[in-house]
Amino acid sequence: MSLTLLWVVIGVALCLMELLVPTAFLESALGVSALAVALLSGVVTQLNLQIGLWMIFSLLTFWLLHRFAPKRTPPTLLDATEARTLTAIGPGQTGRVIYEGNSWQARCEDEGVAIAADQLVFVVHRRGNTLIVLPQSILRA
């Protein structure tokens, strides 16, 4: 099997793998680079030089294609994580909790429940900059 055909097979296989299992353009960068080396294999006949070209082309292609990858958004709040109240949270009112080392505005999910200061609460979700919490006592009942 000639080296040109080998590079074409590797390039096509890597590009097809990117379609089946997306890897943020990594496999497609490797595949496109292999196809470029296949085009140059008539001029560059030594396998060591072809592998070196493939690595250089892969880095450049990945750098160019990486710009089109979707940007990762920062992680949102995890479900049912713990926080501790800094101030009392009256029924239907907001207070303050300490969550992941920061002070957050918080409101109880149940509008009729009051939560005392220095109580363990669970963060249910977030609404804007306000954490929606439930007291630990409600969850145990």
From TrEMBL:
InterPro entries: Membrane_assoc_protease (IPR052165), NA-bd_OB-fold (IPR012340), NfeD-like_C (IPR002810). Pfam families: NfeD. One of its GO terms (cellular component) is plasma membrane. This is NfeD family protein. The chain crosses the membrane at residues 44-65. Keywords: Membrane, Transmembrane, Transmembrane helix. It is found in: Membrane. It is a multi-pass membrane protein. The keyword Transmembrane helix applies. Residues 84-133 form the NfeD-like C-terminal domain.
